[in-house]
Amino acid sequence: MTMKINKLEIENVKRVKAVIIEPNEIGLTIIGGPNAQGKTSVLDSIAWALGGNKYKPSQAHREGSVTPPNLKITMNNGLIVERSGKNSTLKVTDPSGKKAGQQLLNSFVEELAIDLPKFMESTSKEKATTLLQIIGVGDQLIQLEQQEQAIYNERHFIGQVADQKEKFVKEMPEYPEAPKELVSMSDLILQQQEILAKNGENQRKREQVTQIEFKYQQEVQQLEVLNQQLLDIQTKIQEVTNQHNLTSNDLATAKKSALDLVDESTEAIEKNISDIEEINRQVRTNLDKEKAEEDAKEQRAKYNELSEKITEIRVKKTKLLNDAKLPLPGLSVEDGELTYNGQRWDNMSGAEQLRVSAAIVRQLKPECGFILMDKLEQMDMNSLSEFGQWLEQEGLQAIATRVSTGEECSIIIEDGYVAKTNEDTQQIASETPAVTATPTNTWEGAAF
């Protein structure tokens, strides 16, 4: 059975002198009045009566009163809770008349329901932990969040490495005209030697042309002499003529061969030899840049792969929370913190914070059908009306205080007494159903 408060009777607690209040069965009962008149004292009295002496106010006895505090709360199942006498002795009587104690009260009283500020002042992560405890997916979500955090940390490190490598690549110089591979000194020298040998052979052939040409001139002169002696030495002329023809052929061949000869320059190789260190430095720089680019691409690929894994885990987390039975639509846990309609706690309005708190606290112990709320003046009238309607839909009883004497208040407390009830003021249509409260100024010394 869902336990709710049917009636509460309070005398001489803090600022309360004597009040009797019968709160609404469901929805919002607002205790209004100016500051320092006893509104919060009513909530403190309920918390003390039901929660035990750990909720006893430090100055529980009303100043100036000779009669000790007396508390009496009647629950909707007939259970009666009383604290009275000098020592505020607890007496719990169940509907059958049997006596009971604090243990019975603890079975249906949710600690946060009578101490809502404790929940509201907890950290966002503590609120999220409470919600996950309710819906029963805490361990699974923690495991997913640990996986997500581990991958996120790894991705973050890899992303830093990739950024550094990409930055390093951009800052590195590049030499497009440099060869792709390092230049070998021995190869250049060998090439130089081969060209020099070839050029030497060409020079030898050029010298041979000179020699043959000199020989040719000598033979021309000799031929002239021999022609003068032709008649006498015909036979010798014929021999010389034949030899001259042969020499002429050799000369033509040698000249023709010499015309096709082209000397190769060793200037480029000599320059390469002298510049080999600079060339190889450029080649190494280009090779290092190519390697750095490959490393950066590899790190970026790993980063993207880990991003996909994080997305998969977040999808699982979302599905886990969507499949869970949440106490309020729009509630969720993101990055270990409680959210409502996508907003974190510090971005929620005061009305939203109260609604979220009420929904979560109510779900912690469903047997506890009531909740206490202080300082409800942070809600405007529209928010107050919507909140009251939500409480009614949830079948939840809320007893709250508000610094106000307006029509939204179920009762008005002044100077420790019930000064006015909603029977004396115009009742708002549906947001605050009627309550009964008995004002009295004659309880000093009365006994329950």
Can you walk through the features of this model?
The protein has about 450 residues and is α+β, with helices and mostly antiparallel strands. The protein folds into 2 domains: about 5-110 and about 365-440, Rossmann fold (3-Layer(aba) Sandwich); about 140-325. Helix content is about 50%, strand content about 15%. It is built from 11 helices and 15 strands. It has helices at about 40-50, 100-110, 110-115, 115-120, 125-135, 140-170, 185-230, 235-260, 265-325, 350-365, 380-395, and strands at about 5-15, 15-20, 25-35, 70-75, 80-85, 90-95, 100, 330-335, 335-340, 345, 370-375, 395-405, 410-415, 415-420, 435-440. The strands form 3 sheets. Strands 7-6-5-4-1-2-15 form a 7-stranded antiparallel β-sheet. It has a 5-stranded mixed β-sheet with strand order 11-12-3-13-14, sandwiched between helices. Helix 6 (about 140-170) packs antiparallel against helix 9 (about 265-325), helix 7 (about 185-230) packs antiparallel against helix 8 and helix 7 (about 185-230) packs antiparallel against helix 9 (about 265-325). The longest helix has about 55 residues, at about 265-325. The protein is rod-shaped and about 180 Å long. About 25% of the residues are buried. The model is unreliable at about 425-448 (pLDDT under 50).
